[in-house]
Every structure is written in structure tokens, then in C-alpha cells.
Amino acid sequence: xxxxxxxxxxxxxxxxxxxxxxxxxxxxxxxxAVVRRxxxxxxxxxxxxxxxxVARPIGAPFSDLHGVISxxxxxxxxxxxxxxxGIRRFPFxxxxxxxxxxxxxxxxxxxxxxxxxxxxxxxxxxGRHAKKMRRWRARLEADIxxxxxxxxxxxxxxxxxxxxxxxxxxxxxGLHDVLRPDWSRALMAQAFSLTEPPLRGLLAVxxxxxxxxxxxxxxxxxxxxxxxxxxYDPAMAAxxxxxxxxSAILEAAGRxxxxxxxxxxxxxxxxRSISNRSMELPSGEARxxxxxxxxxxxxxxxxxxxxxxxxxxxELTLSGRAYGLADTLAKARRRWSAG
Length: 339
Known about the structure:
- The chain has helices at about 1-5, 15-25, 80-85, 125-145, 155-175, 180-195, 240-250, 270-275, 300-315, 320-339; strands at about 30-35, 40-50, 55, 70, 90, 105-115, 145-150, 200-210, 210-220, 225-230, 260-265, 275-285.
- By secondary structure, it is of the alpha+beta class.
- The longest helix is centred in the C-terminal third of the chain and has 21 residues, at about 320-339.
- The chain starts with a helix and ends with a helix.
């Protein structure tokens, strides 16, 4: 915990030892490579050791932030660390690397957003967003009933409702269902059971007239909340339930208490409009031999490649990968034909 506390970039519940232990409880391929000098730990690299000498970020694809936890002045580069750990390749998507251990291995960049709840500075765009929230809320309360937030919601039925909403959403949108494998559902269940520091599962449910309409679930550590799953009752879509839930969480942050809400990357315009903190994080692939991975092709091939990589990350069996590949290609053919 000391190395994480010493570097602000490492202040995420996904980067601490408690998260690595949580994942290790549901995945037999979880490992931690440790760099020591005279018995003192200098760096820790939690990962999944996959066939062919490939290391995946610990907890991927749920590890929206990942990296080697170290202090400054580590006497090894990232590729040298991989070589010493017997790892051939390390593909990454949002690498937290404040000491530039993997400099030169990136093939792209993405912005990871967060809301610093201790910062009173107004955020551009929140005024217009607030007006829309008020309209949605007034219409929803008139049609369904008063809104209420339960956070933390420790009712297993609420948790199961959110999981069902999310899996149905994956099916509607054509995305691969990352909750399909047994290990990922076990990870969610284990996280939900954690109620005490240093890491706890945190479920937020928004109700209208006592009826659950939206939920978010993730992990919280040291006042920093990182949601994994966000979904809502499709019948309530016209009322903006996901936006209303986020607004309710932010309003309640002081009593929870929360000091930061990690939004992750993707959907940049929406997240940019409500965030007040961001980091530029590299994606790419580090190799033990120091070779630079080829920059991926763009357009449809890039999107398809990312989808297939996610399947390879979450599906641990050959049958699971075959199912994911067939499903993805079928959906891609339908979209390309329609286009």
C-alpha cells in the first residue's frame, strides 16, 4: 500500500494489493512478479500468466487501470522486468506508468476520466446537464413516483437485478457478454460480499416509487469508487435513469463518504463534460525482447481486433473463445451488411 500512497497516479482501488488478492481468489492464473533489493520490495506487477508467455493485466477486462506498482528510480525497464519474470508479451490498454517503465512500447493513447469530489471548481457543461436532470426527474416522479437512492445496497436481489439488466444490455447492443464466464460472475459475487476496508463492493440502486430503475456496481477503496457495471430497466430508458443515478450518487458523495469517482475511458464527450480530472494513458504491447509491436490497423479492423482481444481476455476456455469468435463475426457480418 505504501507505493500506491506515495504516487497519486496509483490512487485507484484497481491498483492496490486488495484487488489483486480479490482476483486471485477466483483465477488460478493470477500471479505477482516482485522486484526486490536486499529483501525490500521495489516493484510489484500483478497479472494473469496466460499460455505462450503472455501476461494480461490482473482482473482484465475489469481492470480499466493497470500497471507495475513501483517507486521512482527502479533499476529496470519494463521489458527487462518482463524478461526477468519469464514473460514474453504484455498487451495493455490503459497503462498507469508514471515512471515511464514502458516508454516506447505504446501504440496509442486514450483519456481516462474521473470526478474529484473534493474539488469545488465548476465543470463546463454541468449547468446544461443539471437542467436536463431536473426535467427527467420531474417527469419520472410525476409518472412513477419519488426517487430514492440506496447506496450501499446490500440486498442480493438488487445485485442480481443489475446483473440481469447488464447481460440483457450486452445482448441488445451486440457486445460480448463479459459476465458469461464463471470466473467473472464469481469475481462480481466476491466483490459484492466485501463490506469493509481496504476494499469493498459498492452497489448503488436508484428507485422510483420503490421500483428499481437503475444500478451501478464496482469497488471502492480509500474513498475512491470505480464502477464496473452500469445498467437500467429498459422500460425506463426515456427518463435517463443512468444519468439520474449518477447525479444522485454525486449528490450523496459526502455522506458515503467518497472523494473520487473513476469514470474510466471511452464515451469521451459524455465523460469529459462531467469530469474535472483526467490522465492520458497508453495502450500497446510490451515485449521482453524490446521489439516494438506493429501499430494496429484502423477502422473496422481495429474495432474487430479490439473485440477479439477482449474475448481472448475474458474467455479462458477454448469453447468459450470459439463461441465468442463465432458470435462476434456473425454480429459483425450483420452490421457490415446493414451498412
